[in-house]
Amino acid sequence: MILEVCVDSYTSMITAKKAGADRIELCSALNIGGLTPSYGLMKKAKELKDIEVFVMIRPRSGDFLYDDNEIETMKSDIILAKEMGFQGIVTGILLSDGKIDIVRMKELVKIAHPLKVVLHRAFDDAKDPIEDVPKLIEMGICRILTSGQRKNALEGANYIGEIQKNFGGFITIMPGCGVNANNLEEIYKLTGCTNFHLSGKVNVGSKMEYRECTKRMNTANSEFIIERADYRLIKRAREVLDTIELI
Predict the structure, then answer these.
(1) Using N-to-C axis directions, what is the helix angle for 231-243 and 184-191, rounded to 10°?
(2) What is the DSSP letter of 35?
(3) Residues 6+ apart with CB under 8 A from 112
(4) Residue 85 DSSP label
(5) How far is 247 from 19, CA to CA, in rounded Å?
(6) How many Cβ atoms sit within 10 Å of the Cβ of residue 22?
(7) Nearest Cα to 39, choosing from 109, 87, 86?
């Protein structure tokens, strides 16, 4: 049973590893779904040994329909991740009609080689993505992260189970979104998947004492919300996975 934890700081990365994560998805701005991490964060992440790290390649927030400049940015980021020696990347591109952009995904896979490539939850925004799974397998995608095209993986478990049943022997299907210690066993029983993705984050709050700027500038307090991976949440998930009997 593999536990992947998504983090957007080195502090969270250390916490996730100590709590039993097998693999890290490294990004920035996790509060908006995750973006490509900075060079500084990637460099810092290389200090942590003996754990797989996959780098998010997503140039901006919003949809997954990218223009030529954004695609070139993604390619440059992939080259950097490869030069720095990470194990893989996590990315996804859609066409305007909602279909997975197979042509451009192939380009990114080719540039990333020999790094492994994961299709992230762009899969859940895609139109009829199951139809394209054989093409994803053929181009070398190693894993699909999905909530089963629902708001969380438990609600989408039956859909995820269908993908696992049909393609799990050729590509890793990984439930993600809303996954936690309380529903891991149920998701496993419904899907048969053995890789799980979560963030296990909590709001630790800002240590800033001076906050008058929110009054002066008429802004919200969102800038004082600091989220970090929580050791207890991740450790509990690890313990649940370790006690599950494989089907």
Answers:
(1) 40
(2) B
(3) 78, 81, 82, 88, 89
(4) T
(5) 25
(6) 17
(7) 86
- Give pairs for 66-74: CB < 8 Å, separation 24+: 66/93, 66/104, 71/104, 71/107, 74/36, 74/108
Among residues 163, 165, 160, which one has the least CA distance to residue 175? 160
121/126 Cα distance (integer angstroms): 9
Dump pLDDT digits (tens) for 153-192. 999 999 999 999 999 999 999 999 999 999 999 999 999 9
CA distance 204 to 163: 37
Query: Contact 157/177 with Cβ under 8 angstroms?
Result: no
Q: List % helix, strand, coil for the chain (3-state, nearest 5).
A: 40, 20, 40
Sheet of 52-56, strand order? 172-175, 143-146, 116-119, 88-91, 52-56, 23-26, 2-7, 195-198
Q: Encode burial over 32-58: b for 16+ CB neighbours within 10 A, e otherwise.
A: eebbbbeeebbebbeeeeeeebbbbbb
- State yes or no: pLDDT of 202 exceeds 80: yes
Please give the CATH superfamily to which domain 2-243 belongs: Copper homeostasis (CutC) domain (3.20.20.380)
Alpha carbon distance 33, 58 (integer Å):
10
Q: What is the pLDDT of residues 27-54, one digit of tens each?
A: 999 999 999 999 999 999 999 999 999 9
Q: How far is Cα 19 from Cα 12, in angstroms, rounded to an integer?
A: 10
